[in-house]
Amino acid sequence: MLRLLRQYLAPYKRTLILITALLLVQAFGQLYLPYLNASIINNGVLTGDTTYILKIGGVMLLVTAVFTVASIVAVYFSARTAMRFGRDVRRAQFERVQEFALREVNEFTAPSLITRNTNDVQQVQMVVVMSLTTMISAPIVAIGGVIMAIQEDVQLSLLLIVVIPLMIIVIGAIIVRAVPQFAIMQDRIDRINLVLRENLTGIRVIRAFVKNRFERQRFADANADLTSTALKVNRLFAMMMPSLMFILNIATIGVLWFGGHLVDNGSLEIGNLTAFIAYVTQILTSVMMAVMMSVMIPRASASANRIQEVLDTNPHITEPAHPSSQIPTAGVIELRNVDFSYPGAEQPVLHDVSFTCKPGEMTAIVGSTGAGKTTAISLMTRLYDVTGGEVLIDGTNVKDLLFEDLWAAFGMVPQKAFLFAGTIATNLRFGKQDATEVEIWQALRIAQAEDFVRALPAGIDSVVDQGGQNLSGGQRQRIAIARALIRQPLVYVFDDSFSALDFTTDTKLRAALAEHTFLSEQNAPTVIVVAQRVSTVLKADQIVVLDEGRVVGVGDHHSLLESSEIYREIVYSQLTAQEAS
C-alpha cells in the first residue's frame, strides 16, 4: 500500500505539507489548553483572582478558535487530496486495463476488474482521508502529551509505561487475526459481482431453463460466504473499543488514586493533576484514534495489493518499440504459416494457416464450430498475437504497427453486436466522430436499418439502452454494421454478422454492401466475412475452408464444390444440389 500511496500522492506534496502544518497548529492548541487550564486553577481559582481568570480564559478562547479553524481547513484539504488520489488511481487502472489484451482481461475477469476500480479504490481512499486527518495529528498529540505529562509529574507518568504497551498488545493481537480475513472478503465481493453480473446478463437463459431457484441459491451461497467473513472481522473489532475504553478508564482511576495522594501530601497541585488527567486522556484518545485507523488499514492494504496487481501487470500485447513508418494504405491481409494456441490450452487452435485477402475482393471464411474462424479474425487485429508465423497487412507485420494505425484500417462487426448506452446517432459516430446526418442515414440505408430507425419517434436520436437491450437482435446487428460502414475503412470484417437477420434482409443487405464497397474500383476495400450461412458466401471471390484449425480448401464456390469434401458437406447440409449449383 505504501508504494501506491507514494506514487499517487507525490503530486500533492505541497498540499500535504500545508495539511501537516495545520495539524501541528491543531495539536499545539490541544496540548496548550490543559496547561492554561491548570494555570487558571492554580493562580486564579485557588487565589480568587478574577482578572487572571478572564485574561487566561481569553487566551484559551483565542487558542481554541485558531486550532478549530486550522482543523476545518486541514479536513477540507485532506478530503480534496483523497478524492483526487482516488480519481488518479481509478484513471491509472482504467488506462492500464485499456492496454490489456483479451488474455489479461480473462485472467483477472471483468467482475474483479470492476471491483478493483470501485470498491478497492474506495477502501484505500477512505484510509487516505483518515490518515491525513488522524494519523498525522494522533502521533503529534500522543508524543506531545507524553512530554507535557512528564513535565507535570514524573512519578505519575510511569503509569503510561504500563498502559500504552497494554493497548498496543490488544490492538496488535486483533489486527494480526483480521488481516487475512480482509483479503478473503475482497475475493467474496468479486464472487458476488460475478454471480450478479451473470444473473443480469443471462436473465433470458435463466428463465428459459427455469433456473430462478438455482440462481437464487447460488447468490445466497455467495452472499452467505461474504457475510460470514464480514462477521468474523466485525466480531474481532467489536472487542477492540470496549477493551481500550476499559484500559482508558482504569488508567484514569489510577491517575486519580495516585495523584490524590500526591496532592494530599503537597507534592502536586490540583491544577497540575487536572492537566495531567487531560494529557493522559489525550494520549490514550490518540492511541484509540490510531486504533480506528487500524480497523481500516488491513482491508485497505488488501485492496491496495489488488490494485497494484492490475497496475503492475504488463500487457501481453504491446506496441512496437520501433514502429514501422509504412501505414496501411491498400488493405492486403496475409496470414503466413500462422499457428496459435490459447494460454493454457493443450492443443493449438490454428495450425500452419496461410491465405491472402485482397482489396476489391470478398473473402469468406467458413468451417464448423470451433474450426478457428473468429480466432483468425482476432489475430488480424492483434486481439491476440500469433504463436507462430506472421500476420501481414500491406506486407508489414501487424506487430510492427502502432495500435491506432492498425485498428484504423479495420471496420469490425463482431459476432455479438454490442451497442453503447446513448442514442443511435452516438453509436454510429463511434465509428466516425464527425459523421454528418447525411452520412448516418446513408450508412443506415445500406445496412437495411433506415426503415425501422425512421419509424422510431426520435429517429437517429432515439435512446439506446446499455448493450442495445431495447432493440431486437437483428436491429442491433444492422446498427453495428452501419457503424462499421460509416468508418469507411480499408478492411471490412463481418464476423458471423448476418446470422441474426432473416433471409430477405440478409439478401438485400449483401446486395447493398456489394454496391457500396465496390463503387470505386480504385479504392475498393477488402471484405472478410465469417459466416455459417452458405447463402451468404456463395458469391465470394475467395472462400477459405477451415477444419480443426487447418486450411483444407481455398477457392471460389464452384471450385470448392468439386475439390473439397468438407465444403460440400457444409453446403449440402443447408442447400439442395440445385440451389448449390
Automatic annotation (TrEMBL):
<dbReference type="InterPro" id="IPR011527">
    <property type="entry name" value="ABC1_TM_dom"/>
</dbReference>
<dbReference type="GO" id="GO:0016887">
    <property type="term" value="F:ATP hydrolysis activity"/>
</dbReference>
<keyword id="KW-0067">ATP-binding</keyword>
<feature type="domain" description="ABC transporter">
    <location>
        <begin position="333"/>
        <end position="573"/>
    </location>
</feature>
<dbReference type="Pfam" id="PF00664">
    <property type="entry name" value="ABC_membrane"/>
</dbReference>
<keyword id="KW-0812">Transmembrane</keyword>
<feature type="transmembrane region" description="Helical">
    <location>
        <begin position="126"/>
        <end position="150"/>
    </location>
</feature>
<dbReference type="GO" id="GO:0005524">
    <property type="term" value="F:ATP binding"/>
</dbReference>
<keyword id="KW-0813">Transport</keyword>
<dbReference type="GO" id="GO:0005886">
    <property type="term" value="C:plasma membrane"/>
</dbReference>
<dbReference type="InterPro" id="IPR003439">
    <property type="entry name" value="ABC_transporter-like_ATP-bd"/>
</dbReference>
<dbReference type="Pfam" id="PF00005">
    <property type="entry name" value="ABC_tran"/>
</dbReference>
<feature type="domain" description="ABC transmembrane type-1">
    <location>
        <begin position="17"/>
        <end position="299"/>
    </location>
</feature>
<keyword id="KW-1003">Cell membrane</keyword>
<feature type="transmembrane region" description="Helical">
    <location>
        <begin position="236"/>
        <end position="258"/>
    </location>
</feature>
<keyword id="KW-1133">Transmembrane helix</keyword>
<dbReference type="InterPro" id="IPR003593">
    <property type="entry name" value="AAA+_ATPase"/>
</dbReference>
<dbReference type="InterPro" id="IPR039421">
    <property type="entry name" value="Type_1_exporter"/>
</dbReference>
<dbReference type="InterPro" id="IPR017871">
    <property type="entry name" value="ABC_transporter-like_CS"/>
</dbReference>
<dbReference type="GO" id="GO:0015421">
    <property type="term" value="F:ABC-type oligopeptide transporter activity"/>
</dbReference>
<feature type="transmembrane region" description="Helical">
    <location>
        <begin position="270"/>
        <end position="297"/>
    </location>
</feature>
<feature type="transmembrane region" description="Helical">
    <location>
        <begin position="156"/>
        <end position="179"/>
    </location>
</feature>
<keyword id="KW-0472">Membrane</keyword>
<dbReference type="InterPro" id="IPR027417">
    <property type="entry name" value="P-loop_NTPase"/>
</dbReference>
<protein>
    <submittedName>
        <fullName>Unannotated protein</fullName>
    </submittedName>
</protein>
<dbReference type="InterPro" id="IPR036640">
    <property type="entry name" value="ABC1_TM_sf"/>
</dbReference>
<feature type="transmembrane region" description="Helical">
    <location>
        <begin position="53"/>
        <end position="77"/>
    </location>
</feature>
<keyword id="KW-0547">Nucleotide-binding</keyword>
